[in-house]
């Protein structure tokens, strides 16, 4: 994917928080106008970036033509209708279990050595709180197939989307730039320049703070300025998506078995955390979770058939919480290195 492939990513960027932090103490994002200042590709892009930056993801939705909005609504609604209910219940059930641990065992989490003895425990605690809230917001907004069956992108962006954006903005503000998990579209320092433009086409240059540049062709389609690649590929991508969604009912049995198998394993790993009644029990459960994850993750990558993975080195627990081992020179190297 190009580093600045705009509108194909904007819908997702608006949800996952590719935006800059709010000012300290801010409780409400600055208002963003309903439309760009002028009818040009550059003004459209700047308008979208401003809206996403200020926690108002609906601007990304409004930047799509009516037909594209209908297509997105249709796909989400079709997923809600065609997805196997038992499989979806397994998936959301696991997410609810994760949320339950984060919510009800927060005191144990905060007092775990990897948090309490880290360089900045207060920031880590706030980050966990924001992650807990973010997961809850997503589950409340899209946690049932019934909600997906009546999905409306505009309403979603104005309600759940705003909450998600606010929570991720707060979370992103606590992360060092080089360590943030979402680097897809760092809007804050991107400058937009028009290289050439007509009534129906334009070429824009995006200049990042580090000097890197990207040129993207835009076209006007159904009254909206969009990346040309997006317009060229839209019909094909929608056709493929519809084909995949149409096949979901035939895949129900297979999906159900896979969800039950993976779900059972993950639930078994979470259960000791949920049942822990003391800090010692919780800490021991975390160590077991990290060890179990070390054996489980290779399976997700298709690596296969054995569970005989070596126990993780003693600093793996700290790594999982983002802390460093006491002595980096003593870190155990993976087998084969």
Structure description:
By secondary structure, the protein is of the alpha+beta class. The chain has a domain at 6-24 and 35-248. The protein is built from 15 helices and four strands. A four-stranded antiparallel beta sheet has the order 1-2-3-4. Helix 4 (66-82) packs parallel to helix 12. The radius of gyration is 23 Å and the shape is globular. Residues 1-27, 178-186 and 300-337 have low confidence and may be disordered.
Would you kindly provide a brief summary of this structure?
This protein has 337 residues and is of the alpha+beta class. The chain has helices at 6-16, 41-53, 58-62, 66-82, 85-104, 106-111, 113-116, 121-142, 145-149, 153-158, 160-173, 228-246, 252-275, 279-300, 316-320, and strands spanning 191-197, 201-207, 213-221, 224-227.
Question: What distance lies between the first and last C-alpha atoms, to the nearest angstrom?
Answer: 31 Å
Trace the largest sheet across and list its strands: 1-2-3-4
Shape category: globular
Fraction of residues in H or I helices: 55-70%
- The succession of helices and strands, N to C, reads HHHHHHHHHHHEEEEHHHH
What fraction strand?
Answer: 5-15%
Largest pleated sheet: 4 strands, antiparallel
> How big is the Rg?
23 Å
Number of strands: 4
Tally of contiguous helical segments = 15
């Amino acid at each position: 994917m190009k580093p600045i492939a705009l509108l194909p990513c904007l819908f997702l960027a608006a949800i996952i928080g590719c935006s800059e932090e709010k000012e300290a103490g801010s409780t409400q994002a600055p208002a963003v106008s309903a439309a760009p200042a002028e009818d040009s590709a550059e003004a459209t892009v700047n308008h979208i970036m401003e809206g996403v930056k200020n926690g108002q993801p609906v601007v990304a939705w409004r930047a799509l033509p009516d037909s594209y909005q209908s297509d997105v609504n249709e796909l989400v609604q079709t997923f809600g209708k065609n997805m196997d209910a038992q499989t979806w219940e397994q998936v959301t059930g696991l997410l609810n279990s994760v949320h339950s641990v984060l919510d009800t065992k927060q005191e144990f989490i905060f007092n775990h050595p990897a948090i309490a003895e880290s360089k900045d425990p207060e920031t880590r605690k706030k980050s966990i709180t924001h992650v807990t809230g973010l997961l809850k917001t997503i589950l409340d907004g899209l946690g049932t197939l019934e909600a997906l069956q009546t999905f409306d992108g505009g309403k979603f962006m104005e309600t759940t989307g705003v909450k998600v954006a606010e929570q991720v903005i707060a979370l992103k503000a606590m992360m060092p730039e080089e360590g943030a998990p979402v680097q897809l579209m760092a809007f804050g320092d991107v400058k937009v320049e028009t290289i050439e433009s007509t009534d129906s086409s334009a070429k824009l240059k995006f200049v990042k703070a580090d000097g890197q540049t990207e040129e993207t062709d835009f076209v006007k389609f159904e009254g909206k300025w969009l990346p040309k690649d997006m317009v060229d590929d839209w019909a094909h991508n929608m056709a493929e998506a519809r084909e995949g969604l149409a096949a979901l009912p035939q895949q129900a049995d297979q999906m159900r078995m896979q969800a039950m198998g993976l779900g059972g394993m993950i639930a078994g790993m979470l259960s000791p955390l949920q049942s822990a009644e003391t800090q010692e029990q919780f800490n021991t459960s975390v160590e077991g979770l990290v060890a179990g994850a070390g054996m489980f993750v290779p399976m997700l990558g298709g690596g296969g058939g054995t569970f005989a993975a070596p126990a993780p080195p003693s600093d793996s627990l700290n790594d999982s919480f983002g802390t460093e081992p006491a002595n980096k020179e003593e870190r155990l190297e993976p087998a084969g290195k």
